[in-house]
Amino acid sequence: MADPGLMFACFGCCCGHANNGAARFVRPALRRAFDAAGLQGRVRLAFSECLGPCSEANVVFLYLHGRPLWLRRINTSDLFEAVLAYARIAADAPGAPLPADLAERSFSWTGGGIGPEPS
Ligand code: FES
User: Fold this and answer.
1) How far is the CA of 65 from the centre of ligand 1 (A)?
2) CB within 6 Å of ligand 1 — which residues?
3) How many other C-beta atoms lie within 10 A of the C-beta of residue 80?
4) Rounded distance from Cα 1 to ligand 1 centre (Å)
5) Which of 38, 45, 61, 76 is within CB 3.0–4.6 Å of 34 for a Cys-Cys bond?
6) Ligand 1: distance of its center to the CA of 21 in Å?
7) Residue 38 is part of a domain; what is its CATH number?
8) pLDDT digits (tens, 9 = 90+) for 41-55
């Protein structure tokens, strides 16, 4: 059976760096957090080049059960842990509601353009 999910943590021109109001993140730390989250076999993590909506750095894109979920300003390790916790729940429960701290950081993005207006 295929994994139900993919997670892209953006590390493009703005995400992961402190040059656009985002927090600096390093890939090994995110990888360690992901590996500790027990998502192996259910969700794959990939680090990506720019996903497009740079104004929202740090951006995480989660694709679970065929549904896209964009998350903006994931700028603390606690927020990244919250994304992992949500992925753990939603991988087994499609359509699980987002917790409030992630719901306020979710946004729509269809690609193209300069990205959504900052909230
Ligand atoms: S660098 Fe992350 S969206 Fe552009």
Assistant:
1) 24
2) 10, 12-15, 50-54, 57, 59
3) 22
4) 31
5) 45
6) 12
7) 3.40.30.10
8) 999 999 999 999 999
